[in-house]
Design a protein that fits this description.
218 residues; six-stranded parallel beta sheet; alpha/beta
């Protein structure tokens, strides 16, 4: 049951129309919720948010062109009063922390049911933060690297590090990455170590999973 004092408007954002249809069908019977728009990528979401000034955005994070973190920052700049509820298939700790720091008010996994979605909407519209139970548990786990910003700290990747990750995703070797970025192979390896350290990752498989969550796998 939705527990809010007044009706509110919602913008839905996902690159899959079937997901948008499903969420809209869940919300349609609820008088207190008015779906005022839909978008299928981050750039359109920012434009729609600026125009519609919705009270809530329910948004996927893995989208073409602009990932959820950048979209969250831009939406909140264009519509400062808007609340953002992230809906994702993934739950990487550093990714969640960065989204929350970007201003997201909640984080749900896509395997959630209608009851938890309404619980999240109620909490956020009442000024609280809402995290899926799995996400809350994940954030309580300690890091392997105690020298990061406290056990719950994380490191934001630099633009160069993002470039390296995207090239790794394209299966470039260290030497090939070095040539494309006009760096030495040693510098690329240093970037790789820093990336793994910042993201608290153990191996390349973990890095690939993180990059897919960010939508960098296209």
């Amino acid at each position: 049951m939705l527990n809010v004092a007044a009706p509110f408007t919602v913008l839905l954002v996902d690159d899959q129309s079937i997901i948008l249809d499903g969420i809209e069908a869940l919300l349609l019977p609820i008088d207190l919720v008015q779906v005022v728009g839909r978008a299928t990528n981050g750039a359109d979401a920012v434009r729609e948010a600026a125009t519609l000034q919705p009270e809530m955005v329910i948004m996927d994070v893995n989208m073409p062109g602009m990932d959820g973190i950048e979209a969250t920052k831009r939406i909140l700049k264009a519509a400062p009063e808007t609340k953002i509820l992230v809906l994702s298939m993934y739950g990487h700790k550093e990714f969640v922390l960065e989204l929350l720091d970007a201003g997201a008010s909640g984080y749900l996994l896509k395997n959630t049911g209608k009851a938890e979605l309404l619980e999240a909407l109620s909490a956020i519209m009442n000024g609280k933060r809402y995290l899926a139970k799995e996400i809350a548990t994940l954030l309580q786990q300690t890091d392997r690297f105690k020298d990061r910003q406290g056990e719950n700290g994380y490191g934001v990747l630099t633009k160069r590090e993002v470039q390296v990750v995207k090239l790794i995703m394209q299966e470039y070797t260290t030497q090939e990455i070095a040539e494309r970025l006009f760096l030495s192979a040693d510098t690329v390896e240093t970037h790789r170590r820093n990336i793994m350290h910042k993201l608290d990752l153990r191996n390349t498989a973990g890095l690939v999973k993180y990059a897919m969550e960010r939508g960098w796998g296209e």
